[in-house]
Amino acid sequence: MKKFFSLFLTFAMMLSMSILAVAEEPVNVALGKNITPDGEYTNAGAYNNMTDGDVNTMGALIGGDPAVEFSLTMDLEKVYSISRIELVARAGDSAAYDLDAVTVSGVTEAGALEEICTTPPRWENKITGGQVWGYDLPQTKNYRYLKLSGASIAAFACAEWRAFGTEASTEPPVTEATNVAQGKQLTPDADYTLIDSLDKLIDGDISTRGGIKQTPGVDYEYGMTIDLEKTYSISRVELVCHEWGTNWNMYAITVSGVTESGDVEEICISPAHWTGEITAGTVWGFDLPAVKNYRKLRLSGVCLGAVSDLFFAEFRAFGTEPSTEPPVTEVTNVSQGKVATVAGEYQNHGCTIDRMTDGDTNTFAAIASLTADPFEFNAVLDLEKLYSVSKIEVTARAAASGFAASDLSNMAISGGKTLDSMEPICNTPGSWEVNAMKAGETWTFELPKEKNYQFISISGSVDDVYMFACAEFSVFGKEPSTEPPIEEDSNVALNKDMSWEGDLDFLSNLEAFGPAKMVDGDTATFTAFGGKEGGTPYELRVDLGDYYDVSKIELEARAKIDTGWELGGVTISGSTTKVPAAQMTALTTVPGGIDAIEDGEIIQYTPETPQRFRYITLSGTTPGNYMFACAELRVFGKKANVPEATDVNIAAGKPVTYTEGLKFYNEENGGGFEAKNINDGNEATAALAFAPASGTYFYKIDLLNFYDISALELPSRTEVQGWSAYDLGNITLLGSVANLPVAQMETISATPAANEGGVPEGTTWRYELPAAKKYRYIAIQITGPADYPSYIKEIRVLSKAETDFGQWNITEKESGTTAETIEAGKTYSASVSITNYARLETSDFVMILAGYDADGFMTAVRCAKTPVPDVGTSGPLSAEITLPTGTVRFSAVLVDGFNNAMMVVDSKDLFAAEGAE
């Protein structure tokens, strides 16, 4: 009996161990599962040979020339938590292209297909005959269906396709924020001397403590990582002071989160010990402004040898499982049903703030004063997570509810990723304006560029007889893109949005379609339309979707020319805002004429330095009986790093003039230093010149537009570059709004004198203006020994509030051509676009067109006015003027009226062929 019991116990233990092994150790759950093709493929083999467990068989002989795209789906029959994928190449005769860039994807019972991994391309030669290629998922993911896809040139063949995993957990997901750090694995960065086990920091017991022993007189950095075992959406972290401790024992602890990809992001820092905010037994907590997804959490800081040991009772991290809801990929109203809060006390008359986002225009939110006094309000809408916002709509309440124009007047709308990073977005119209909102009207503002926001604030003032009343406040957006920015130059026009202007009939009977065929990456397709009698003006515009630093543009003619085809006479232009081609910067023009372009010829434009654009246009006029036909437009560049509300060097690449006769140590004189190197944005170059006999000379930079200058910088060279105090000594910096002689420009500041040591080597001399000042021209005047060479690495002119004025367009109205000379009796049109206006003053722009006779008396004048555009938007100005007999000079002046003052912003002068001074 004892022997039987012993055998039974042994068997039971083995069985229980076996069961545990099955439950805990991942196994090949693909073994024996069924594989089906997602299409019909030529020469296809036995697909299930890839899951038969035999590496001597192979499945899926798929191939063709050109490469054939294929997709195979495996049904695991139920959901498994997958941790590893393996693909086994066929035996020794296998070629590397069998497993060339094969992608494995997965999906559960419902949800979007997501990519898991991709094998190396064949030219990396990482997979050989019979070799096993494996990929460990950073975190186990639940899948029922696995998909294997790729493109095969000759014959895709795979000996085995394995998926290792365990049955998916049946534990309910963590939907309420709980302490997900409790009981998890904690690993210190080093072998610290401990006063108590660090594991006690996450044991859930505040009577225990964990900590690091102080080394008297020695300060050293410490760190520890808590693996949460899977990703959680963290909303709050807490540190609990032990009942024996004080704030000295929780000195400035930094809490950080680690994403699945390994990125470390700082979350918060506990108070320093001298703040007195933490006492024995208290809980210090920090609520994240927005929930963030983290796999691991880190605690780090400095253990002070002069203070005491580091110890505390507990670290907690509150979170939930990440949302499994499909991401919002299409632009939709992301504010509906979200919660808004209003600071302060107010009356709502039964119309609560949530009615502003209930999706019902028949209800409205109201905010009114508690007294008869005017008051200011601020409502904050929490979208609950970051969205890429592209449009905002505000709907006024209906007339039947007692609407007044001031209900939604001058309401300021701001947005931010966090509550302390709010930035202005737009303002609603003022009640006294003609375009004030009417009863039930919806006011729409489209952001010129999508911005990521979680919080949207609505603020304004309400007087004593009105209330704020809003039927609907709608924010339209989608989930922010997780694609990394383009770091290397690539074709950023590929499959981007193409639009057109003009009466164009795109041909479909010659394999040609609309403009999209010009950016589809396929030179076998092309865009074509025919010219009509008298010629067909056109504009074809690609929206790159963001700002890119463009390094090259290619325009490729279609390979086969039919009778009557013409691509020539095309002007390629670029701009940062969506304006007509005439207001864009013209880059180059493709020669005109039927014989000017060869079959498949590629026209290239390559600027000396990358230029920042969002829109690229092709414009021109296609003659009657001819055809515009283009195979491909390619724009090469990388994502522009557009700083927001930070110092921007607006001097880089702008025109430079200098003292006449200044001799440079350039290539002609055996060196490589030019005047343009002084502001080329590259500290590896420099402007090296020999002073004239006078010993005083200057460089002047035309910023081309007017900027609010906040700071100036001059970096000095180092000793190994031959540094001397004279390099940045005795330099005066000057500025002006007009192109004045340097002697008449306003002095901004001066560097230390050379005999006072100048500027230390390898440092950057910086001068911050006490208040931003508007300049267009910046000069540096240098005083030094007559024969001493000046070596200036770079001058940076920094601006926070950038106002750009687009290209002037002055044309003769009848012909529509650019006016190079003016003639009496003809009518001319002038226009200019205003972008990125960021000044705080309220103002209007006014453009004055005027004609003058030879004595300087005005013969005609015409004005145009536009309100200040919002930040980042475009406000075009245009006007027409007819010049009478006797006019010899034509001037277009842009002025800016603010604080009851007028200031010249920019002007263009055109002179007649005869009689001009």
From TrEMBL:
InterPro entries: BG_Antigen-Binding_Lectin, Galactose-bd-like_sf. It comes from the Bacteria. Keywords: Signal. Residues 1-23 form the signal peptide. This is Uncharacterized protein. It comes from Congzhengia minquanensis.
